[in-house]
Design goal:
Elements: H1 2-18, E1 26-27, E2 40-41, H2 54-74, E3 86-92, H3 97-110, E4 128-133, H4 144-153, H5 181-187, E5 191-199, H6 203-206, H7 234-240, E6 249-253, H8 287-296, E7 302-305, H9 308-312, E8 321-325, H10 344-355, E9 364-370, H11 372-378, H12 382-402, E10 408-413, E11 417-418, E12 420-422, E13 450-452, H13 457-461, H14 483-486, E14 504-505, E15 509-514, E16 523-526, H15 529-538, H16 549-585
Parallel strand pairs: 3-9, 3-10, 4-16, 5-6, 5-9, 6-8, 7-8
Antiparallel strand pairs: 1-2, 4-15, 10-15, 11-14, 12-13
Length: 586
Amino acid sequence: MQSVLLILLVISLGAWSATVQPPPVIQTLSASGSNGIGPEFQVTEKQDPASEDAQFWRQVGLKQLSKTIEKAKRAKDSSYQHKAKNIIIFIGDGMGLSTISAGRIYKGQYLKHGHGEEEMLSFDEFPFTGLAKTYNVDKQVPDSAGTATAIFSGVKTDYGAIGMDSTRSTTNASQGRLDSIMDWAQREGKRTGVVTTTRITHATPAATYARIYHRDWECDTEVPQESVGIHADIARQLVENAPGNKLNVVLGGGLSPMGAFNESEVKTVQFEGGTETICKRGDNRNLATEWLQRHANDSKEAKLVYTREQLLQVDVKEVDHLMGLFRNNHITYSIAREEGEPSLQDMTEAAVGVLERGDKSKGYVLLVEGGRIDQGHHQNYARAALHEVYELDLAVQAALKMTDSDETLIIVTADHSHSVTFNGYPERGADILGAANLHKPKDPMVYETITYANGPGYFDHLANETKPANSSNVWRALKMYTKEQIESPTYRHMATLALKDETHGGEDVIVFASGPGSSLVRGVFEQNYLAYVMSYAGCMGPVKSFDESCQRHLSSAGDSKSKSSAAALRLTLLPLLAAWLIVQLL
């Protein structure tokens, strides 16, 4: 019996050791395939990114639009044909589903609305949702440049690329250039604007107006020698080239790349991370004042503001072009807002005020980015990141109050997710930023509900010299942090892999939509499809003529305007006619 067991043990060990080495092929479970296991996928050479160029992704977008409309027709649902005069797209940078869920609870607990779990974000109420696949052409987990280009241009591209497809070149600025929703809108006579809590030259806002090989080229000093004289830096493109120089609203941070560095800027809280550094111009140009001079010559009123007080004093009904630059770098995290900085809600309200012109305009397209959700996560600043979700929620609420839901399409989404986790078994109503298992005293360690797969929080929570004797626990006990430390904006939640900068996450992001055209947002789709939703709903860009719905809409709008004009004329003439008759009778 012992010899049989020994033989079985040897066989088992042999079988186990044979699986230690990486298998030559990858197999998946399936009903068919050799050995009853499934199809084999051979490791292949990396696909040439140039094969997924603009033409490729435009076909993907058109196919998704056709499929969605066809499904609506079969269901006898014609709501997809409703057209939007105005479009506002909110990007919560890095606002993946875990962040939304945690942010919702944070909002409820911050406002003391009960336990927190039952709270709702303003966009939770939107009638249509979908899931967007976020990968870049060359990356499984994306960055903000490639994802923003997909959302605003309808073409997926490489990691780091702004407004250019995968055929981009460092020595040819024309190769791979793309148009964005701002180009499309301006061609239709719509007003346009960009609002962000990051630098105005940062990846997401830049993708609405710039075409450049790499997102880091925000200043002239960042453009590499081989591209100097070929690629103009992002800040220059904002002021010199369309659609940037035609934007009616530009609000955010970024005084430094614009050449308007504020030497006396105050920084009360010292946040860390690569995003806290910023380039300076080397050409001695002040692009902000150049922008003002260009628009001052247009005979329409233009304003350049630097503080919240100046922003609130702007007569939005009279100003045609508004630029606000409020920090050298990004606008400070809202949880530690500096004096003189506007909120995202302030900027959104000002932007809508400048863009909205009623019957005097053909509508507008506006980007509003809550950009510091992402940057908070990168440094494992969970409290700062979740407060930025609340900040975005307030901006969405403001837009909903200021706009007509029958003529304004509002989309809320993220560009990508993060490696943040919402985990453990915390009790109902537990502090979302607190410990997950205080109610389980037998657990080997107390851990937080919000933790990260990687990032600098690893170093902050490593036990080092505080490790108890004869303990296998390498983490510093949570009780060793004071309440003041944990509630600080710069407190980092624990990360289990040591990185100086936490990474993005690769899962799909949720898309919320409300207003005309919102029913096109449904199911799972490639992220670039969102540009086609805005194009079709807004009667602008590549699918304006996809079918006859835009033509019918524009014709009916013209008829309505004619009828309104005729009615107004009658109202004007009737009193005059009555007065004339009275005179004649007398």
